[in-house]
Every structure is written in structure tokens, then in C-alpha cells.
Amino acid sequence: MGDADYQYPGWLRLLQFLLGLGLALGLIGAGGAGLFFLLMGIGHLLPPPPKPLFANEAQSDSPVPAVSFQPLPMPLGLSAPTASPTASPQPPGSYLARVTWPAGLAVRAEPTSRAAIVGGLDWHARVLVLDGSPDRGWVKVQLLGSKRQGWIKAGNVEKMPPRTSD
Questions:
Q1: N or C: which terminus of the chain carries fewer CB neighbours within 10 A?
Q2: How far is CA 22 from CA 11, 17, 80, in A?
Q3: Is 0.85 topped by the overall pTM?
């Protein structure tokens, strides 16, 4: 009788099958996990791509772009407004506010996003809120110390508490 005629017991064949199946599943799982970590790890080894620079962006290192109120040229015969040392009375219904949008705001001629931009306001700039649009989407503001007025989107300013005089 040769070795080819020998029959292994049933429990040993079952054990051999289970060990082979476990080894095959273990190799597949380890290969998949290795591939996952290889592909995920490569992304962390490479530097991030450079930030795209668009034509309308200023090339500065500050995270908040500088936006300032740009006065329009004054007509002939008029002088530019100057800040008075004494506080002028506020119109009824108006209140002091400051800009809360970190990138600053565009000041527009009319309460619509299609209106001409007449200037800009920096972050934390103080303004006098004069009025609101009927749909409450825009507020009319005046830069403190100036007579210049314009419209900005509502919700981008925060009402300042009134100052108490000692």
C-alpha cells in the first residue's frame, strides 16, 4: 500500500481546511490593510499644494485682506469733511455699530448687490447705522467722522452699547 491510498481522518481534513481558509483570509486582510495604509500614508508625506492666487486677491501674508473706505473725489467748491472733536447728535433711530465680517465690507451706492461699490469698511470699523431697506437685507451706514453714506449687507455689523459719560 502506498501513501496515495492513505485516507486522513475527517477531523484532520476539517482542521486542514479551516487552517487554509484562515490563512487565506488573513493574507487578504493584511494585504488590504497594508495597501490602505500605504495609500493613506503617501498623502500625508507629500506637502499640500500651493494656495491658488486669483487676480483680484492682494499678495499679502495676512489672513484677512485689508479693505478700506475709499472716498470719491469731491465736486468743485466743496471741501472734504473733517471729524469734529465734539460729538454730533445722532439722527433719531440711528445707532453706533461695528463691522463684524473679518474680510471687511463693500459699501454700495444702493441696497443691491449689483449697485456700484463706492467704498469699503475694515473689520471692526465703527459706523453709524442710519436706516434699513424695506426687505431688511441691507442697512444704510455713515462712516464716523464723515458725511459719506452707503449701503452694506445687514447682519455684518453689531450694535455697540451706548457710551456713558463720566
A1: C
A2: 16, 9, 86
A3: no
